[in-house]
Amino acid sequence: MVGIKNNRRTRYTIDLIKETFLGLLETKKLSHITVTEICKQAEINRGTFYLHYKDPYELFEVMQDEFNQEIMETLRQGESLCTTEESMINLLKIIQDKKTIYQILMSDRGENSFLSQILLEDYLQRHGEELNRKDLFTMDYSFTYMVYGSMGVINQWLESNSKESPQTIARVISSLGHQKSLS
Q: What span, in angstroms and rounded, lies between the C-alpha atoms of 20 and 43?
């Protein structure tokens, strides 16, 4: 029983640190956020923070890795019973739920090529054996178009406070031919 209680408490503390950190990232650059500031807003002591993370950069990296992993798992579902549009809908739901971290990763405060890297990795895992030099050359242009066009649609959607449903945005992206170029 003690282990379960500690795990629940630990999970709560980690979630609190992440929520506080995301709130700070909405208004400040990563380089301007301190451990003291995170701890003060989360109402925890510095030792608790250091028990889980070395510094705000490590916390950011952990959150980015978790986000990327969640996206990759969603994209991998597309190989089973989900269609490509269903995978896109699931991806959009993740992005909508984690809007802050996504926007930070897309801005100059974070790594702005993460989505293209994830989509390229997924594409190569699905089609790697079938590709030859000509396919790679052709895929490079169509892939670039698909990624940046899709990211533009997603960014506009988020900036408008996600008024449309993920299903509607997935259809928009698909109708623009972005998903067809990956099939």
A: 10
d(CA 54, CA 3): 24
pTM over 0.90: no
End-to-end CA distance of the chain: 49
User: How many whole angstroms separate alpha carbon 47 and alpha carbon 15?
Assistant: 16
Residue 88: other Cβ atoms inside 10 A: 26
* Residue found by looking up tokens 């259809």 in the block: 171
Quote the Cα angle for 103-104-107, to 5°. 85
**84-123 pLDDT per residue, tens:** 677 778 888 888 888 888 877 776 544 456 666 666 665 6
127/148 Cα distance (integer angstroms): 20
29-33, 40-44, 124-128: which is most confident: 40-44
CA 109, 110, 116 angle in degrees (round to 5)? 140
With 0-12 CB in 10 A as exposed, 13-18 as middle and 19+ as buried, what is 93?
middle
